Amino acid sequence: MQRTHVNGELRISDVGKNVTLIGWVAKRRNLGSLVFIDLRDRTGITQILFDENLTEAVKNVRNEYILQVTGTVIERQSKNPSMKTGDIEIKAQEVKIINSANQPPFIIADETDALEETRLKYRYLDLRRPVLQQKLFTRAKIVKAMHEYLDANGFIEVETPILAKSTPEGARDYLVPSRIHPGSFYALPQSPQQFKQLLMVAGFERYYQIARCFRDEDLRADRQLDFTQLDIETSFMSQDEILTLTEGMLAKVMKDVKGIDIELPFRRFKYVDAMNRFGSDKPDTRFNLELVDVTEVFRNSQFRAFETGLTEKGSIKALVVNNAGDYSRRDIDNLTDLVKKNGAKGLVAIKYLNGELEGGAVKFFGEQEKENLIKILELKENQLVLIVSDVWEKTCSVLGALRSHFGKTLKLFDKNSYDFLWVVEFPLVEYSLEDERYYSVHHPFTRPYDEDLHLIDIEPLKVRSYAYDIVLNGYELGGGSLRIYDFELQQKMFELLSLTDEEIETRFGFFIDALKYGTPPHGGLALGLDRVAMILTGSESLRDVIAFPKNANAKCPMSDAPTPVDETQLKELHIQIIKEQ
Fold first, then answer.
1. Rounded CA gap, 20 and 26, in Å?
2. Which residues contact 159 (CB under 8 A, 6 or more apart)?
3. How many CB atoms within 10 Å of residue 548?
4. What pLDDT, in 10s, does the model give residues 76-94?
5. How far, in Å, CA of 316 to CA of 389, rounded?
6. 3-state class of 55 per DSSP?
7. pTM here?
8. pLDDT tens, 6-49?
9. Chain-centroid distance, C-alpha 146
C-alpha cells in the first residue's frame, strides 16, 4: 500500500494513528536537529516532522520531490488555523524518496511570482498550485450537476461529429484537409447546431452534449479558440418551457457548487429595453446606474455634436455619475478616449455644481434646454453628466461601456453576488453597410415571431426573433432560440441573407432536405461551460479554468502548437505552402 490517507484528510481525532502519506514537497524548513516538510497532494497539505534520526535521510530533499512517509499522527504544538490539517502533524518513522525534481521555474503556491506566459509554458507545474486545482474541481462539479439535472429530466447525451462540413457564416472555420479526397476539407464545428437540429428531426426530442467547439477568431480574456459548451435541443417545448428548464438547471448548479439558493424565475428584459436602459444586450444589473434618453430635450438644438442623434435612426442619451463633480480635465479626456475606442465620435461632459450646469458644451444650450435637462435627469449637487449622440445602437453601446467602467472603478456592486437574467426578443437580422446585405443576429435557423412574418419582405430590421440569451453578472453565459422548422420559411430566410440557390445547396443542402420529412417544432440553447466556471470560481480569465489553454497569440506556450509539419505530410495532403512576398 502506497498510502493509508490523503494529505488533506487527517484531523485531531486521528492522533495516535500510524499512517503512510505520499506527495510533493511544498515547503522545507531546516531547524538543525529537526526538519519540517509540508507534504502536498491534491487534497491538501500535512506537516511532517523529521527528528535527528531521519534528518540525514532528507538532507538533500528539495521542493517538488515526491516522498512516501510513514509515521504517527501527533498534536502540533504551534497550530495553524489556516490549514485544514493545522491541528496535527506526522512524526516520521520511515521516509522514501519516490522521485527527485529540478528546481521549479516559479513558486508553486496559490500566490506565485511568475508571469502568465511562464506559467503556461510549464502548465503541468502551474496546475500543481492548489488554487488552480480547486478551479478545475469546481468545473467538474458544475458538469456533474448539469449531467444529473438533464438526465433526471429525460435528456439523452449524444455525441456529434468533430470532422464536419464547412458552412462559413460568422467566425472563421478551422479547416482539416482530407488525404483521401484531395482538395477537400473538413471543418471543426463552431457548434453542433445543424446536428442537434437533425437529432430533433430524428425524433430524440431531448438531447444534450458537453460539446467541444472551435472558432478561428481573435482572443481575449473570456475567449478561446477551442472551447466547451453545454449544448441542448428539445422538441415540442415553448420558449417559456425552455427558459424555465434552464433556470432549474442553473439553480441546481448554484446549489451544488456554491451552496446558494438563487431566486426563480429569472428576470427577463426585451433586447430593446436592455439596450435603452443599460447600453448592453448582456447587462450587469447588480448596480442601478442607467441610461436616460434626452433626445427630446435637444430636439430643436443647433449644437453640431448632436446632429446624428437627431436623425431618424439616431438617439441622444445621458449617464449621470454621483460624486464626480471634482473630475479633472484629464479624467474627462480618459473617458473620452474610452468612448472613442468603442466607436463614438466624442463625449459631452457636464458638471452640476452650485445648482448650475458647467462645461464647454453648456454655451450651446438654450435656457429651456438646460431646465429640461436638469428636470429629466433629476440632477443633484456634484453629479457628472455624460452625453453621447449617435445612431441608436452606437449611442447605447458606447454609454453601456462607460456604465460598465464606472461599475468596476467605483465598486458599485457586490463582487460576491450572482445576478441572473434573460434577454429576449432579439432582432432577427442586422444590416451591414459595408457588405450591403443582411446578416443573422444569432444564426440563419432562428425562428421569427409569427406576428412579424409580414415584415420580412418590407422591413426586415423590425422583425423580432424567438432568440434568448442567459446573462450572469454582465457576461453572456450562452443563448439559443426556437428554430425554423418549416421548409419554405427557412428558404425565405436564406434568401433574406442573400444566399444564392447554389450557396444554399452547397452549405446546407443535406439540412434543407431534412426539413421536408416532418420536422417537429424545436428549440434549444448552448451555455459556455468555460465562462460559467470562470465566473463561479471568481477567475479573471478563461485560461484559469481550462487545463491546457492557448495564450492571447493563439499559441500553446507549453507544446508550442501550432508548429510547421514536414514535407511528407504536406505532400500526402496535396498541400503546398506559399510564402508571403
1. 17
2. 209
3. 14
4. 999 999 999 999 999 999 9
5. 4
6. coil
7. 0.92
8. 999 999 999 999 999 999 999 999 998 899 999 999 999 999 99
9. 17
